[in-house]
Amino acid sequence: MSTVALPNTDFQSQISVEDLRSLAAKFDILLECGADEDAYLTLLQSAEAIYEHFENVDDYIHPALVPVPTQSERKYWRPQREDNVLNAWSHRCELKATNPKTALLAGRSVAFKDNISVGGLPTTLGTRSSLLSMQGTDYPISTIDASIVSRVLDAGALVKGITTCETYSASTLSSTSFRGPVQNPWAHGYSAGGSSSGSGALVGANLVSKVKGVSFGDSVDMAIGGDQGGSIRLPAAYNGCYGMKATHGLIPYTGVMALSPMVDSVGPIANNLEDIALLLQVLAGYDGIDARMTAESPLRDRVPEYPALLRDSFAECQSSTSNTRPSFRVGLLKEAFQVPGMDPAIASHVQDSARQAFEAMGVPVVEISVPLHAEGPLFWTAATRATMSDWGIAMQTPGYLSYHPPHMKLQWPPNQDMYELLSDTNPTINNLIFSSAFLKDKYGPGVEAKAHRKVFQLRQAYDDALSQVDVLIMPTTLGLASQHPELTRDGKRTGIMERINPAIGLSSNTCPFNVTGHPALTVPCGFGKDAKTDQMLPVGMQIVGKRWDETMVLKAAAFFHAGQQDIEKDSSQSGQSHR
């Protein structure tokens, strides 16, 4: 590394010798007065001059991220309460591309999580504008379309807006947004899951409104969520939808607010497999910008044709007989049914449903063990916790070429106002700030680096299991959606742990696959009854496949769905024969 230039005589440095000495003292270094101290001061002023220059020059909008021309002006609005019954919308819009490149999503409506940049629309990250914008009073307006936004518009979709997300995208519940709790469309007062809470709720509302004839205002056919530990799959499961976290690096993350580069993912939420496959087709493929994508990531024209492959799977389901058994095997992941906090009723429900549906289609089902799965959440925490506040709150660049959303200027370092606001809304963020600082101070970078190496061990353990079976099956969640925690009592906010406790452990079966990168799809798996209220709520089953083999995950989901339908048909016919 070299110093490229010394500050010119016109530059007025703000750094004094005392500042340099204070800086050195942070490292317990004592500088000697004289020529050495003067030299280091000059070199430090050089860095200051360059940063002052770059702080004041115009930003660069990558040509690939220039907002797609739309048929009408990019206007947005906060929906009225009657149009936002679930509190799932952050802001509404009506955007269609002027000249879409394909018609893959023609006639479909799509919404994006509120950490995804949509040109001309605000980004709120589920918190106050004062934490996101240098102006402090207004939410920052995106100057770009994230790669996935451009792709959705270019596929002919109607973009209807951005959906409520949990504060800084960091909660598995749906009660931490500054706008208030997002409601579950199946039962008001229950969690819709997080952090892609609005995305899951709006897609779920689309289904519930058809099933029950209930109006929730505007909903969507499909939505995009973000997933660092389960934030697509948990909301999808709680709302009775399909939700996919694809292989890490299959879908570009460019233009989306990060939490940690090694686990950042975006993906589809929909009410049927066909829409999951279709949206995956639109979203997937290298974008030339996102460094999370590697040599393994397919170019756009090499992305598998997921809808066609899914149709082939459904055709195979229809032709499957006892004499033509499907050529794949399903493994029930033993440890995933035994994680701490798992509701035994949910474990039994998912296990029985999987066996019955797959075996009805002639698919062999076996139990398989991955002992390290029990430690998966520990791997996830150790590999991300010390630096997650750097990426997700301070917006630190990751050290390789990257493109952060240029309109976002997050509050950093934290201050008292920020602490109090987050204590009121999402104390998980304060915990993240404190624990990140503590872990870095006590352990340095060594433990996180070791955890990254250990992730390869966890990945290999899953790969070994997936060499014996084609997919792994497990409950997506530990139990049914819970009722929202009480946020205030007698005019005062409730305690920190009272609001955090319901979220602890919820991602035990989802977060391990964020660090290992395996594709994971949650599928609807019937309903369970809340023993306290008798409320019926959706159950989700997770299907995990080999890295880069989303096709097999979709195939397994197709066979599970077909098996469920056959069982329901047989039950219906049996019931009729007894009448």
UniProtKB/TrEMBL annotation:
<dbReference type="GO" id="GO:0003824">
    <property type="term" value="F:catalytic activity"/>
</dbReference>
<dbReference type="InterPro" id="IPR023631">
    <property type="entry name" value="Amidase_dom"/>
</dbReference>
<dbReference type="InterPro" id="IPR000120">
    <property type="entry name" value="Amidase"/>
</dbReference>
<dbReference type="InterPro" id="IPR036928">
    <property type="entry name" value="AS_sf"/>
</dbReference>
<protein>
    <submittedName>
        <fullName>Amidase signature domain-containing protein</fullName>
    </submittedName>
</protein>
<feature type="domain" description="Amidase">
    <location>
        <begin position="97"/>
        <end position="554"/>
    </location>
</feature>
<dbReference type="Pfam" id="PF01425">
    <property type="entry name" value="Amidase"/>
</dbReference>
